[in-house]
Backbone:
């Protein structure tokens, strides 16, 4: 347990203005899926100049993430603070430059600030609060700013495979500063390709892949998935959010197709324990096979993992179900209690059924033997990209006390 003087010294280094500016700096560097390297290099420079041991990891050729370590004096437990640098594609509706962040009241707006540059800023600032306080820790704090979480956790899986095995971790996904999440669904994604045929000779109509895809989508939404009931509402969940049709093998956007010879949809399935890509494939192929009996022209291909050319999900996130009595969970809860004088509102599944549908990197850490709850600042939605500044500050304070306690 850290002594009160050390806690006071560390909390005295949390500065809202500096934290917000750090969040803004991260937003100003676009880091879409597959394009995280400039942000990783910026973080590497930021932390290297402050005395961290920086590992700029090349996950694939030219594709980098940053793992930085604030070294302890030795003999203590290590804690990883983990957050991803990749951001979602821009939603519609922006009326200002999304990469020129701004504040409105308690809200910090900017592309990717909610998911999850606010959490990345909070965890970096928490580590910095400990460093600047002068308090000595026995154990290391590892600050992992990873790539490819929105592709299934490529970066976190890479660092685990390269030997990073801290005693515990906290993942700063945007589930809210008043809750610790230890339980949520996984995610498995398939590309579904349906072949059409251009008219030729006596075949005056050909086969249009788009109407067939519409039939397939309707059938997929009615698929009875194989699963064991779980006590998280709303799971499993199937969603098709992207379709490409009539653009040929190269998905060329020029001209207008009058007959689609190829249509592709992306089938995302939020999973519960026991479900795998293999069980989902069997269920979907049973559905598509029944449809083919009604539509003899249906030619389809179901692909998992999704082909790399689509720059989307390339590995599965498993579901997460970690016992709430893990020491790191209770350490976060104790830090929250010290900062707020109150108990957390919830420990376990997310408060929102919607939030429980998504996979996160904590599951990869947990399956490798690293207890890894989620604790990070919440904000708006995909369509309204902001983070709560108050929650960013609260998270930074709680994370700083968590690291101080766990690594002392």
Residues:
């Amino acid at each position: 347990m850290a002594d009160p003087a050390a806690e006071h010294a560390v909390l005295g280094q949390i500065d809202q203005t500096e934290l917000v500016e750090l969040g803004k700096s991260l937003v100003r560097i676009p880091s879409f899926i597959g394009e995280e390297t400039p942000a990783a290099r910026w973080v590497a420079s930021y932390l290297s100049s402050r005395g961290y041991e920086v590992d700029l990891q090349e996950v694939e050729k030219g594709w980098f993430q940053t793992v930085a370590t604030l070294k302890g004096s030795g003999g203590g437990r290590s804690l990883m603070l983990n957050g991803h640098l990749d951001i979602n594609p821009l939603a519609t509706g922006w009326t200002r430059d999304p990469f020129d962040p701004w504040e409105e009241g308690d809200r910090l707006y900017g592309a990717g600030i909610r998911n999850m540059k606010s959490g990345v800023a909070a965890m970096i600032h928490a580590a910095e609060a400990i460093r600047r306080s002068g308090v000595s820790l026995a154990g290391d704090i590892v600050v992992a700013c990873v790539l490819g979480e929105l592709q299934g956790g490529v970066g976190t899986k890479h660092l685990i495979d390269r030997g990073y095995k801290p005693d515990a971790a906290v993942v700063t996904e945007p589930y809210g500063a008043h809750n610790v999440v230890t339980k949520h669904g996984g995610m498995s994604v398939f590309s579904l390709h349906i072949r059409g045929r251009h008219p030729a000779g006596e075949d005056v109509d050909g086969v249009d892949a788009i109407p067939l895809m519409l039939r397939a989508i309707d059938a997929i939404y009615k698929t009875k998935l194989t699963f064991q009931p779980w006590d998280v509402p709303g799971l499993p969940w199937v969603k098709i959010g992207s379709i490409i049709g009539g653009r040929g093998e190269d998905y060329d956007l020029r001209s207008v197709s009058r007959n689609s010879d190829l249509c592709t949809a992306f089938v995302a399935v939020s999973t519960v324990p026991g479900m795998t890509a293999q069980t989902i494939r069997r269920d979907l192929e049973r559905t598509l096979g029944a449809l083919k009996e009604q539509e003899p022209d249906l030619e389809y291909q179901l692909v998992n993992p999704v082909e790399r050319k689509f720059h989307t999900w390339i590995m599965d996130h498993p579901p997460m179900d970690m016992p709430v009595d893990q020491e790191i969970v209770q350490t976060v809860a104790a830090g929250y209690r010290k900062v707020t004088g109150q108990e957390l509102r919830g420990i376990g599944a997310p408060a929102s059924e919607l939030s429980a549908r998504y996979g996160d990197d904590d599951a990869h850490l947990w399956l490798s033997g690293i207890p890894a709850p989620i604790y990070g600042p919440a904000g708006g939605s995909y369509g309204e990209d902001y983070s709560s500044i108050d929650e960013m500050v609260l998270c930074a304070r709680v994370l700083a006390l968590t690291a101080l306690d766990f690594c002392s």
About this structure: Residues 186-310 form a domain with the Alpha-Beta Plaits fold (CATH 3.30.70.360).
